[in-house]
Amino acid sequence: MSSPQRTPVVALESGAGPENPPCPACGEPLFGWLAPRPGLGPAVSRCESCGLGVVGDGGEPAEALRELDRLDAGGGPRIVNRAAFAASLGNAGWAGLGPGSRYLFTVESVRRLVARRDQVVRSGRWAPAASLGATWQTLLNSVTFGHNVALAALGRGEAAKAPRPWQRRIDALASVVLAIPALAIALPVELAGGLSGRGAVVSLRFELL
Questions:
Q1: Does residue 1 lie in a domain region?
Q2: Residue 94 domain-assigned?
């Protein structure tokens, strides 16, 4: 009796090439994730190993580290987590993708990036209020023409507004009418994400090796 055939394991490195440049955090190939969207810039790639998202072509570790440092308001950066439940749920509607975005971090990608300068991630704390807001906005993005309209109206970010006035009026109305229903859905989704280590917003602390 012949033994069952095994499916061959294909290493991520086999996908490396001009169309799949190396991830700035871990060096594995980047693969396509999202197509270009008006107001949100070019196509987005993602690393299947560490989860880093890159908007536009390629990327460099030094550039990614500089962007990470710009998120530090004192004591450590706060990232909108691309590995969150909200990102998986929202895809192109994910609130962490905004105008001018370049690098979309995960805790694992940050860990690999800061190791280049002899740092380690000492702690990663879920930020419940900010996370709930991001998940809430992600759900609203699924029913609006623009992107991140509600958070921008609350002074919590920048919106990619819909191009036509009538679309912007519908977005404003939808954000008001659906605010409570979206919050009711966002609450259990984000609670599950936070408790499982996949919260939408995470505050990080580093220390030297």
A1: no
A2: yes
Residue 14 has pLDDT above 80, yes or no: no
The domain of 75 spans 17-208
Domain count of the chain?
1
Q: What is the mean pLDDT of residues 81-85?
A: 97
Closest CA to 12 of 31, 34, 25: 31
- Across residues 90-98, what is the average pLDDT? 93
What's the predicted TM-score (pTM) here? 0.87
Which amino acid does the sequence have at 85? F
Amino acid identity for residue 135 in this structure: T
Res. 8 pLDDT band, cuts 50 70 90: very low
